[in-house]
Write a structure and sequence with these properties.
Structural class: alpha+beta
Radius of gyration: 31 Å
Helix content: 55-70%
Shape: globular
Strand content: 5-15%
Number of domains: 2
Number of helices: 9
């Protein structure tokens, strides 16, 4: 019992130190990338603090597994460098006995992190998204970056050269709009202001001193250039992106596992219904096509000048109908396949996120399993080497996790493999290293 207390005492202090350092690194990165943009847009300090607090939640979720790895490396690295491991081995105490309290502590953290990932993290992500959307409504320019192409609106891309945050005025605007006729319209304007109208359903840009450039869709040879002093440009249905009032309309990163399972079952049901309905439709189309094929007859060369040629129009009509029906059937089948693939990808995203919530929590135990033997072998204690090693390991782990998520989203590998392969690999290496250390 004394040995257990000693190992935990040596382990817990480095854990909280590493947790502070890794969270601090995430905070600095967040301040540089996000808060700097928000602070420069005149957002009240209270709102900025709320945004920061909500985003600290995901930082802690990532920092905990990293801190477990760093603390384990520091603890066993220091004990190994001070020859404590060898002294305990000489006294008949195996490294496995020393690792047991750390593994139990890591298991407890894994359970707590599962609860954290399933309840606190989704709610924080949801509230953060709602807050950012509220900011975009009250201060539309706050969500626009100057010198970058904005393509978050369907069918419209916007470029802004400069933003005056005090007056909320945009300068050097270029708007690229793709219409249903596939001919683009380009609008340039010296300055503009923005506001939401129709209860937030439409984003209105009040343009000043600019030009319209477009091609006549009926005659592509005709090009129009029309100057204006004042013009309003409306972006319709922007509330489709903002309206999220219940759990079903949340993003998959803003849902609990129970919510995602429910959404997954509904999506699977919709996919099965689509397949069942499409079978009957495709079968009926195939029967119509078979009937037309029986009517279709291509005349041989020797009969073209005979009396059979009098029915050439009938044969041509049958052939045209057949080709048309074939085209319609193919288009219908492609549409069904496209919708089915959308359902499958949505199901894969839900499954990936479910496994991700669990696998990232289990990573605490996995990192403790590999950190202990690595620390004994490396014989380097201190927060510096531990943090460096943990950052390197976690970077590789996170790259594998993100890569697996992308591959699963493209239906190349299964969600289970994408989220658990890295855990299995690192865990296997940890077991091998532990076995080697215990036999030394």
């Amino acid at each position: 019992m004394i040995l257990v207390r000693y190992v935990l005492k040596e382990h817990i202090a480095p854990f909280f130190a590493a947790l502070f350092v890794t969270t601090f690194l995430f905070v600095i990165n967040f301040l540089v990338e996000v808060l700097d943009k928000i602070l420069s847009k005149g957002i009240p300090a209270q709102i900025v603090l709320e945004i920061f607090t909500l985003n600290v939640v995901w930082m802690v979720g990532l920092a905990v597994p990293m801190s477990v790895l760093a603390a384990t490396l520091m603890t066993f690295g220091r004990m190994s460098s001070d020859m404590e491991i060898r002294a305990m081995q000489a006294a008949g105490i195996s490294p496995l006995s020393l690792m047991r309290p750390v593994l139990i502590f890591a298991t407890l953290l894994s359970v707590l992190l599962m609860v954290f990932n399933n309840w606190l993290l989704p709610e924080a992500n949801y509230r953060s998204a709602m807050l950012m959307q509220s900011i975009s409504r009250k201060k539309p320019h706050a969500m626009i970056d100057e010198g970058k192409l904005i393509n978050q609106f369907p069918g419209v891309q916007i470029w802004v050269s400069r933003i005056d945050n005090q007056s909320a005025t945009l300068y050097g605007i270029k708007i690229f709009e793709i219409g249903g006729n596939n001919y683009p319209r380009v609008i340039t304007s010296d300055s503009a202001s923005m506001e939401y109208v129709d209860r937030g359903a439409t984003l209105m840009l009040h343009l000043k001193s600019g030009e319209n450039h477009f091609i006549d869709p009926k005659d592509p040879e005709r090009y129009f250039r029309i100057k204006f002093a004042n013009q309003d440009f409306a972006i319709q249905n922007v509330d489709d992106r903002f309206e999220r009032t219940d759990k079903k309309s949340r993003g998959y990163r803003e849902m609990t596992i129970e919510d995602m399972i429910e959404a997954l079952e509904e999506t699977t049901s919709e996919k099965n219904k689509l397949i069942a309905d499409s079978k009957d439709e495709v079968w009926r189309s195939a029967e119509r096509l078979a009937t037309l094929l029986k009517q279709d007859t291509i005349l041989p060369e020797e009969l073209k000048n005979s009396e059979v040629a009098a029915n050439a129009d009938r044969h041509k009509t049958a052939l045209d109908l057949t080709l048309k029906e074939e085209k319609l059937l193919l288009e219908h089948a492609n549409r069904i396949e496209g919708r089915r693939e959308i359902f499958i990808k949505r199901i894969a995203l839900y499954e990936v996120e479910i496994h991700k919530k669990i696998s990232t929590a289990v990573a605490c135990l996995i990192f403790a399993l590999i950190g202990a033997p690595l620390g004994i072998i490396a014989r380097k204690g201190g927060i510096g080497p531990g943090t460096v090693y943990s950052l390197g390991f976690f970077t590789v782990y996170w790259v594998c996790l993100i890569g697996g998520e992308n591959l699963a989203g493209r239906l190349i590998i299964s969600p289970e493999i994408s989220m658990w392969a890295c855990n299995a690999l690192i865990g296997t290496i940890g077991l091998i290293l532990t076995w080697r250390v215990s036999r030394r």
